[in-house]
Design goal:
- It is a single chain.
- The chain has 411 residues and is of the alpha/beta class.
- It folds into 2 domains: 124 residues, Immunoglobulin-like, CATH 2.60.40.3500; 246 residues, Aminopeptidase (3-Layer(aba) Sandwich).
- The chain contains 7 helices and 19 strands.
- The chain has a 6-stranded mixed β-sheet, with helices on both faces. A 5-stranded antiparallel β-sheet has the order 7-8-5-4-11.
- Strand 9 and strand 10 form a beta hairpin.
- 39% of the residues are buried.
- The N terminus is likely disordered.
Length: 411
C-alpha cells in the first residue's frame, strides 16, 4: 500500500516537475507577444505609444524618464534579455533607438530613446494575453510639452514597483539594544507547491516578488531581514519556523494570496494563531496550507506530544499578545495608507507556520487571487508599494512599543 501511495505522489508531481524543469530562475521575453505601437497617423510629430512586453513570469519593475536626449527607462528585476535582440521587437522603428540588457546583479534595463518629451500615463502588469504564458507589462506614454517633461531628477518622475528612497516615510527608531530588530519573511509556497493559481498567475511567485520588495524597504529602514526561501523552492512548513528560530528572528511574517470560491473572501487580512477558530474560511485556508506538506509525507498533526503542547501553550501566553499587538499596528498603518481590508481584518486560524511558541508570528493574506479586485491590486505597483511601506512602518512602531513593554515588565 505504501508503494502505491509513493507511486501516486510521484505521478501527481510529474507535471509540476516538468514545468519547473522548463522554468528559468529569471524571466524571459516573449517577442512574439510583445510590441511597440503608436496611436494615430504619423504626421511627423510625437504620438501616444504603448509598449507591451510579455515575460515568462511577473517581476518588480520601475519606470522613469531621462533627458538629453529624451529617454524612457524601465528597470526590471530578474529578466534575462540575452537571446533576444531589441531591434527585433515589433514596432522598433517607431523610436530613434531601443536597447536592453543586464546593468547590475539582479537587474536588467530597457532604454528607449523618444522623439520628444513624454509622460507616463499607465503602467500595468497583468496575466499575459493571446495564449501566451506569464505576465504582460504594458506602459502607456503620451507626448507632453517641455515644461511638463519630468525626469528622474524630480521625486515625482518615477512610477516604482519598488519604492524610491525619497518616497519612503522615515520609520521610528529600531528597537533599543545592541542589535537591530530581525524580521523573518516567509513567502508562502514554492517549488512543486505553487499555491493558489489563476491562469498563469501563481501565489508562490507573487509572494516571492512582494517579499523582495518588503525586504528592501525594511533593510533601508535599519532592520535585518531573513527569508525562509529566496527562490522557487519547496520549504516544509515546520522548516520555515526552524529557519526563523535559527536566525534568532524577533518577528515572523508569512505572506500569502490564497484562493477561495468567488464571493467568499476579498481584501487584505492578518491572522494570528488560534487552533479553536471556527470560521469556515479560516479552517479551509488552514487545510490548504497544510495540504502540500501532507502530500510530501510530513504529517504535522502528530508533531506535538501532550507535554510539548502544554509547554508551548505556556510560552504563547507571552508571545501571542505580542503577535496580536503587531497585527493591530499593521491594520492601523494599512488603514492610514488607504489599503482596503477584509471586514474582519484581524482573525485567528490554525496555520502551522504560526505555531512557534517563542517568536511573535502573523500571516498576512495580501488578498485573494479569486477576487478580481484583489488580483488587480497584487499587480498594481502603487498598491504594492503602499502596502509594503505600511507593513514596514508597522514593524517599526511595534518594535518601539514592544521594547517599551519589555522594559516595564523588567521593573
Amino acid at each position: 500500500m505504501r508503494r502505491l501511495w509513493v507511486l501516486l505522489l510521484f505521478l501527481l508531481a510529474l507535471p509540476a516537475l516538468a514545468e519547473d524543469g522548463q522554468r528559468s530562475a529569471l524571466a524571459t521575453v516573449d517577442l512574439a507577444h510583445s510590441a511597440l505601437s503608436a496611436e494615430g497617423r504619423d504626421r511627423g510629430r510625437p504620438r501616444p505609444m504603448d509598449l507591451r512586453l510579455t515575460i515568462s513570469q511577473p517581476v518588480p519593475y520601475r519606470v522613469y524618464f531621462l533627458d538629453g536626449p529624451p529617454r524612457l527607462v524601465v528597470d526590471f528585476r530578474e529578466i534575462d534579455f540575452s537571446g533576444t535582440r531589441a531591434e527585433d521587437l515589433p514596432g522598433r522603428e517607431l523610436v530613434p533607438a531601443l536597447r536592453w540588457g543586464r546593468f547590475r546583479p539582479g537587474w536588467s534595463r530597457l532604454v528607449m530613446e523618444l522623439p520628444g518629451p513624454y509622460a507616463l500615463r499607465t503602467a500595468i502588469q497583468r496575466p499575459a494575453e493571446g495564449g501566451a504564458r506569464g505576465a504582460l507589462v504594458q506602459l502607456r506614454i503620451e507626448p507632453v510639452g517641455q515644461k511638463d517633461f519630468v525626469t528622474r531628477g524630480n521625486a515625482l518622475s518615477a512610477l516604482w514597483d519598488l519604492p524610491a528612497p525619497a518616497a519612503v516615510t522615515p520609520l521610528p527608531p529600531r528597537r533599543t539594544g545592541d542589535k537591530p530588530l530581525r524580521v523573518a519573511l516567509d513567502p508562502g509556497h514554492g517549488g512543486h507547491d505553487p499555491g493558489a493559481q489563476v491562469g498563469a498567475i501563481s501565489e508562490a511567485a507573487l509572494m516571492l516578488s512582494f517579499a523582495r520588495e518588503l525586504t528592501e524597504i525594511l533593510t533601508r529602514a535599519g532592520f535585518e531581514v531573513v527569508a525562509t526561501r529566496q527562490d522557487d523552492s519547496f520549504i516544509p512548513l515546520e522548516r520555515r519556523m526552524t529557519l526563523a528560530r535559527a536566525a534568532q528572528a524577533d518577528l515572523f511574517i508569512s505572506l500569502h494570496a490564497d484562493a477561495l470560491p468567488a464571493g467568499e473572501a476579498a481584501g487584505l487580512s492578518i491572522y494570528t494563531w488560534n487552533p479553536q477558530a471556527d470560521d469556515r474560511a479560516s479552517r479551509e485556508l488552514a487545510m490548504r496550507h497544510d495540504r502540500t506538506d501532507l502530500l510530501a509525507g510530513l504529517d504535522l498533526a502528530g508533531t506535538d506530544d501532550q507535554v510539548a503542547a502544554v509547554l508551548m501553550d505556556l510560552a504563547r501566553t507571552e508571545t501571542h499578545p505580542r503577535s496580536e499587538a503587531f497585527a493591530k499596528f499593521a491594520v492601523s498603518e494599512l488603514n492610514r495608507a488607504g489599503i482596503a481590508m477584509h471586514r474582519r481584518p484581524v482573525r485567528g486560524a490554525a496555520f502551522s507556520v504560526l505555531k512557534s511558541p517563542d517568536i511573535p508570528s502573523v500571516l498576512v493574506e495580501l488578498g485573494f487571487l479569486t477576487d478580481a479586485g484583489d488580483r488587480a491590486n497584487l499587480f498594481d505597483p502603487d498598491w504594492r508599494a503602499r502596502t509594503a511601506q505600511a507593513l514596514a512602518r508597522a514593524v517599526g512602531l511595534w518594535a518601539q512599543d514592544d521594547a517599551a513593554r519589555a522594559a516595564l515588565s523588567r521593573q
